[in-house]
């Protein structure tokens, strides 16, 4: 996904000082490290070097350095293993809040409506609208204020991704640390605190059989117990 937003109207963009360079760089760094992306890294490094060297910028520069110095083939394999072969680190925000339920469709539609209201054409290139690099691109290039509100409303999902990447000791955690640091308040220290940032989605029973996998929780009882410190009644 490269520059998916093309002008489709004459409405002026709302200007904001909300970390647009950082969001643009984070968007690119969280995408598959193909030849085009790797070639753009020196430009990203230069752009970030001109920003105030506060915590968020310093964190993101660590990921840029990792991508600059890594073996391209290994970087690509690591990315596939991390993001494509498992949902444990997925970059689709509504998956963390709504799982694979019909409620998720409504959440995706709300994001799509925000894109449409911007007077920009969005080329999703097969990605769902909640794909984090796309939301960061939207925030950086199209609607800084609306995009930032979108990030804030999905703060729990961002923090859960951050914690999952930190547990994996992945360099990509630096991008999530940087993005979360630009949002109001402190980042939660653990998964239980991150989960507490959101309201649990209602379970959808209408029209679904008891064994339908869409009724399964986003986290197993064992995982929930590990997050909350309580006993697990039953594992899966």
From TrEMBL:
Molecular-function GO term, any one: metallochaperone activity
Keywords, alphabetical: Nitrate assimilation
InterPro entries to which the protein is assigned, alphabetical: DMSO/NO3_reduct_chaperone, NO3_reductase_chaperone_NarJ, TorD-like_sf
Domain of life: Bacteria
GO annotation (BP), single: nitrate assimilation
Protein name as catalogued: Nitrate reductase delta subunit
């Amino acid at each position: 996904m490269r520059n998916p937003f093309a002008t489709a109207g004459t409405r002026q963009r709302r200007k904001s000082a909300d970390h647009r360079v950082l969001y643009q760089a984070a968007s690119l760094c969280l995408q598959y490290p193909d030849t085009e992306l790797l070639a753009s890294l020196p430009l990203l490094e230069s752009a970030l070097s001109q920003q105030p060297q506060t915590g968020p910028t310093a964190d993101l520069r660590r990921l840029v350095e990792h991508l600059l110095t890594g073996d391209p083939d290994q970087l690509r394999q690591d990315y596939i293993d991390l993001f494509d072969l498992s949902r444990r680190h997925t970059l689709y925000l509504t998956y963390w809040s709504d799982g694979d339920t019909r409620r998720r469709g409504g959440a995706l539609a709300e994001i799509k409506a925000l894109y449409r209201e911007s007077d920009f054409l969005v080329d999703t290139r097969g990605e769902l609208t909640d794909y984090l690099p796309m939301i960061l691109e939207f925030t950086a290039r199209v609607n800084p204020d609306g995009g930032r509100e979108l990030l804030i409303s999905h703060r729990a999902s961002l923090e859960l991704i951050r914690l999952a990447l930190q547990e994996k000791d992945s360099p990509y955690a630096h991008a999530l640390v940087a993005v979360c640091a630009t949002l109001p308040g402190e980042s939660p220290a653990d998964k239980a605190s991150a989960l507490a940032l959101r309201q649990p989605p209602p379970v959808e029973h209408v029209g679904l059989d008891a064994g339908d996998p869409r009724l399964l929780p986003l986290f197993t009882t064992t995982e929930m117990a590990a997050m909350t410190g309580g006993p697990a009644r039953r594992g899966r």
